[in-house]
Amino acid sequence: MKRRATARTVAFYALVALIVLYAVFPLYYAIVTSFKSGTALFLPDLVPPKIDFGNYGALFAGQPFAGAIVNSLIVATSVVVVSLFVGVTASFALARISFRGRPLLLVTILGVSMFPQIAVLSGMFQLVRAMGLYNTMGGLIVSYMIFTLPFTVWVLTTFMRDLPKELEEAAIMDGASSWTIVTRVFMPLLWPALVTTGLLAFIGAWNEFLFALTFTLTNTQRTVPVAIALISGASAYELPWGIIMAASVVVTLPLVVLVLVFQRKIISGLTVGAVKG
């Protein structure tokens, strides 16, 4: 029995190590490649022969990359703020107020997120043009709400539905309004779900490429994914791969740090309602 248990433990940790290697190795290889230049880029070294930050210097010196990072920060942060505000208020109505058609409305909200971006691209393009938001960060914020808001509303509704009714009833007895109940009673209890939905909305907006490529025209309005895609050379064989890898590392590491810092709240927010006791 002990041998079987030991074998299972070894197999389990071997599988975990394989999954971690599969997930982490691309980022590690990008970091290693970002320190190379010239013909060294094409050598399969797992350890860089020397640490050279030339690619990072060239990234910010010869490319409008710093402005793209600022644009991505503004757009992603705005999307998170609007999504959380609308999501909290909408989830309160969907979770705590009974009205006709509520289940259908929830299914409709979830169904919106199932459409691929390419399916709504032409319609969203016409909408952005009609609103006068083409080639503006406002157009990106409006378009990104399509895939961030449904998920936010759905998760927050599930989380808020599980909050004790006694808290709401006690607040009503004290004369609290619906806004006070949401902000003063429920918000402190919603932090795991808020962190989860906010971080996932931020990552989705930060990494989005199709809408950013379609709805922006100038370097002053472009975001990070488009800026990376527009880093080019004379031919495919002359692409500045070191600079591209450096750009990938710059935009990826902050997301990795955020996930590691908030991983406990993310897990708590994603698993809410999964276990009933």
List the SSEs and their pairings.
Blueprint: H1 2-34, H2 54-62, H3 65-96, H4 102-112, H5 117-130, H6 137-161, H7 165-173, H8 178-186, H9 191-207, H10 210-215, H11 224-229, H12 241-261, H13 263-270
Describe the structure.
This protein is an all-alpha fold. The protein has a domain at 64-225 and 247-270: MetI-like fold (Orthogonal Bundle). The protein is built from 13 helices and no strands. The model is unreliable at 273-277 (pLDDT under 50).
From the structure above, extract its key features.
single chain; MetI-like fold; about 280 residues; disordered C terminus; mainly alpha; 13 helices
Count of alpha and pi helical runs: 13
User: At the fourth CATH level, what is the homologous superfamily of the domain at 64-225 and 247-270?
Assistant: MetI-like
Question: What Rg do the Cα atoms give?
Answer: 23 Å
Question: Into which percentage range does the β-strand content fall?
Answer: under 5%
The gross shape turns out to be: globular
Question: Helix- and strand-based class?
Answer: mainly alpha
Order of helices and strands: HHHHHHHHHHHHH
Mean pLDDT reading = 83
CATH topology of the domain at 64-225 and 247-270: MetI-like fold
What is the C-level CATH assignment of the domain at 64-225 and 247-270? Mainly Alpha
| Low-confidence spans | 273-277
Give the end-to-end Cα distance, rounded to a whole number of Å: 33 Å
| Total beta-strand segments | 0
